[in-house]
Amino acid sequence: MRKGRATAILAGLALAVTACGGNAPTTSQPTESAPAASESGGAKTLEGVTLEVAAKWTGEEQKNFEQVLKAFSDKTGAKVTYASTGEDTGAYLGPRIQGGSPPDVAILPQPGLVQQYAEQKALKPLTEDVTKEIDANYTEYWKELGSADGQVYGVLIKAAHKSLVWYQSKAFEDAGVQPPTTWDELVTASQTIADSGTAPFSFCGASGWTLTDLFENVYLSSAGPEKYDQLSKHEIPWTDPSVATALEKIAQIAGKKEFVAGGTSGALQTDFPTCVTKVYGEKEAAMVIEADFVAVTAEESGAKVGEEAKYFPFPKVGDTAPVVLGGDVAVAMKDSPGAMALLQFLASKEGGEVWAKLPGYLSPNRNVSPDNYPNEMTKQLGQTIVTAGESVRYDMSDLAPSAFGGTDGKGEWKVLQDFLRDPSDVKGAQEALEAEAKKAWK
Amino acid sequence: MAVTERLDGPQDPPVDDTGGPTSGPADTPRTRRRLGPSPTIAIVFLLPAALLLGIWVVYPIGYSIVRSMYDSTNQVFVGLENYGTIFSDAGTLKTIRNNLIWVIVAPIVVTTIGLIFAVLTERIKWATAFKLIVFMPMAVSLMAAGVIFRLVYDEDPDKGVANAIMTVVHDTFSSSQGYPEARAREGDQSPVAAQEDGSVVTKQPVESGQTVLIPIVGVKPEVMPADAQPAVAATGGDGLSGTVWFDFTPGGGGVNGQPDPTEKGLPGMTVEAVSDGEVAATATTAADGSFRFDGLPSGSYEVRLPQENFTAAYNGLTWLGPTLITPAIIGAFVWVWAGFAMVLIAAGLAAIPRDALEAARIDGATEWQVFRRITVPLLSPVLLVVFVTMIINTLKVFDLVFIIAPPSVQPEANVIALEMWRVAFGGGNNQGLGSALAVFLLILVLPFMIMNIRRFKRGES
User: Fold this and answer.
1) Which chain A residues are closer than 8 Å to B411 by Cβ?
2) Band (A212; pLDDT cuts 50, 70, 90)
3) How far is A103 from chain B (nearest CA, A)?
4) Which of residues 330-389 of B touch A (CB under 8 A)?
5) Final residue of a domain: which of A372, A393, A414?
6) Which of A316, B42, B248, B456 is the most buried (most CB within 10 A)?
7) Selected residue of A120, A178, A269 to mutate for chain B interface (largest B Cβ count, 10 A)
8) What rounded mean pLDDT belongs to chain A?
């Protein structure tokens, strides 16, 4: 009798516990039932379907994306909720995948994550409809980026232009220099600016990704797109002479004490966007090498983009000026028609143009005309992407396994920070990069 | 804190005790006439705690051990390979080294400071107020404490308190002046060159009666004196004369190495005429940057701008650089925990029999002897508890390192707990290796846990 009661209590407790366990993923419960609802609702409309989309965007970017989602809802009738992953998308998605309740669609900030999650079998292959849409609107290179083992999983839906050098126009006027178009001109101009009493560069050394962006631009321009692709896939080692050339070029601007605002140790403690504030707020430096999104911080620092805050395309180091893009890849984590429909919408010209009309967006979609962009600057940027066509490359570090190209204090980020600390040691940096790459690619 | 939780654990024994005697004598009288409740009842009462412990503590530990034997995808069994990685990867070894520094330094410093505060507050009038203030940081979360200290250690003296204090102290003894970070114009055409010691020297020896041009560049706008006049090339005459000026035409243009009309002199520069390594004469530049050595014996001289002209303003220490980062973070840790140590030790101090202290004093012991020979030995059980608690706390330190160390120096400051998170979730996405690190950390903490529990049991009996 007593034993019986004990087991009963045990069972009760166990029930309670499983109930607790079952409670956690309730948010996904409605989505679970979504496919069934859509099947009964007919093929064209997704009335009654709920979808969850996870992306890292917050604030203004989130609001704009939600407008795009609204356009999708209006079209299909599906109800889409947005979940913010915070800065570290991997840390947000990892446990949800492990827990078996991923969002329907996730926007990954790096294509490297596509390969990783595909390996973990956390992604659903895109349906034919979506693949067709991609073929119509994207070049082969972008399609490959969203693929793993020949299977297409993702669509690049938002691009960031990373081949820009932002400058403070007054510092250039005071020093009497013009925006350079070649690397050598950049070095000479930097010397002149330094002589005038202003540090030419503000490096965001504490944010490792800004250093990888700098390296990628120099490398793409000096070594060319083929080598860039090979190095991205670690088909050539980091000890390759072409890497040495690129690092030596970087040392030309990072190696001189008077070129770096706050000195080396100061630069290594400056994160993004503080380095932008140093240029446009405190006016300690003349230039900051980073992507189009610098504009946001520049405006916050009180510099008007186009007047005080200007940019020039990353100067030619080799034969051609580089165009490096960053961007976000949308993937499906649940095999539901709703998720696929949303991906198809995001990959389409229609979806791209809804988004393009909002500020802070660049489309990698070749059929989205630059005329859609709300201001002159974005139009120009969009034009450079369209004209560069086949030679545009994606941010290399984001293509790498994230242990190499996307983790604070590890891999490429760490080695390039060490290199900024001592730019004379090109060989040591190359060996360290190769050692880290070997670990990451295995 | 953790310890007190663990200390609660063994309080289960009451159940054990009742269970023990009953099962012993239970053999003799059998059934009905047992003293305590039956084992079944005991199990029923134990169940909730056991279940919760099992689900929240035992199962995760067990699963972590299993997970640590698989690779990042959780598909391939790799055996002990992840543990091998821990001890072969340079970065991970550094985390172990850092943890070792933490474990050795932090508990000793916290316990010592806690002891000092506790003993001193016994003697002062406003003891409670003082204790309250020292204990206050405990009310702040470690996360917030990290944010505070990130600011305290900021390199810019205008933002970081630590460097603000250091620069104020430094500048009262020697204030910086002159033209920090300015330097000689470089290049073959330049008549001057920078020396390794930071001074600027003419390349060619000059005779008295000649004039010298010393072009300087990189003068920051904010250090340019307001009274500086446009530079004029010295005209010669007797003695040795010349001009030190800012060789840069605003807006560009101008001839390098020549004082152009809009270029200004650098007043207040110390100039030395050097002959055979000896300073023969010293002069200071005027508002237009000109200088003249009068009454200099004829001969050949080097004209030198000593390094003092270019001394960079003292900006304190690079607290968050690779060398000082771990001590700096330990400083923040001490700030948080010293109050906790003090309160515990003060409680122990209050329990010490006064007569022992007074007897020693009557016997003629000095205060130091009383402290060393009476107070500390009597306090040792409390000190040990504080010490071991701190060891466990330092082993699992995470938030302070994560927040205070800028990403570029985080590899230098890294500790096991942070590495575990980084590897598993913060980008690495290798939960196999992360689990291995978690198990490793558990093994490190275990001896201290056992030690604390043992002590507690002994204290009970």
Assistant:
1) 409-410, 414
2) very high
3) 18
4) none
5) A393
6) B248
7) A269
8) 84
- Once rounded to an integer, what is the mean pLDDT over residues A342-359? 90
Within 8 A of A397 by CB-CB distance, chain B residues are none
pLDDT reported for residue B155: 83
Q: Is A204 exposed, middle or buried (0-12, 13-18, 19+ CB in 10 A)?
A: buried
| Same structural domain, A362 and A429 | no
The domain in which residue A152 lies consists of 45-160+325-393
Would you state the pLDDT for residue B34? 65
Domain boundary among A378, A393, A408: A393
Q: Inspect the interface and report whether the beta carbons of A268 and B408 lie closer than 8 Å.
A: yes
Domain shared by A200 and A270, yes or no: yes
Residues in chain B within 8 Å Cβ distance of A197: 182, 217-221, 224, 246, 248
Bridge partners (DSSP) listed for residue B270: B284
A240 DSSP 8-state letter = S
pLDDT tens-digit map of A65-92: 999 999 999 989 899 999 988 877 878 8
If you average pLDDT over residues A321-346, what whole number do you get?
A: 90
Residue A183 pLDDT: 95
How far apart, in whole angstroms, are the C-alpha atoms of residue A373 and residue A363? 10
Residue numbers of A between 88 and 117 with CB closer than 8 Å to B: 88, 90-91, 94-95, 98, 116
Q: What is the pLDDT of residue B263?
A: 87
Confidence at residue A26, expressed as pLDDT on a 0 to 100 scale: 37
* Same domain assignment for residues A263 and A120: no
Look at residue A87 and tell me if it is in a domain. yes
Query: Which residue stretches of chain B have pLDDT < 50?
Result: 1-27, 29
Residue type at position A172: F
Q: For the whole model, what pTM was predicted?
A: 0.77
Q: Within the 39-78 window of chain A, which residues sit less than 8 Å (CB to CB) from chain B? A: none
Using a CB-CB cut-off of 8 Å, the residues of chain B touching A402 are: 427-429
Structural domains of chain B, ranges and CATH numbers in brackets: 2-65 (no CATH), 68-166+318-460 (1.10.3720.10), 183-310 (no CATH)
A229 within domain boundaries: yes
What is the chain A residue with the closest CA to B150? A269
Determine how many CB atoms are found less than 10 A away from the CB of residue A257: 12
Same domain (yes/no): A260, A291: yes
Q: Is A271–B411 a contact, with Cβ atoms under 8 angstroms apart?
A: no
Find chain B residues with C-beta within 8 A of A116's C-beta: 429
* pLDDT on residue A20: 41
A340 lies in a domain? yes
Q: Do B320 and A269 touch (CB under 8 A)?
A: yes
Same domain, A362 and A431: no
The pLDDT tens digits for A259-298 are 998 888 888 888 888 899 999 988 889 999 998 888 888 8
Measured between beta carbons, which residues in chain B are less than 8 angstroms from residue A260? none
Residues of chain A above pLDDT 90, percent: 41
Using CA coordinates, name the residue in chain A closest to B180: A197
Higher pLDDT, B123 or A415: A415
User: In this structure, are A343 and A410 located in the same domain?
Assistant: no
As a whole number of angstroms, the distance between CA A368 and CA A422 comes to: 44
A66 with A143, same domain?
Answer: yes
Identify whether residues A152 and A209 lie together within a single domain: no
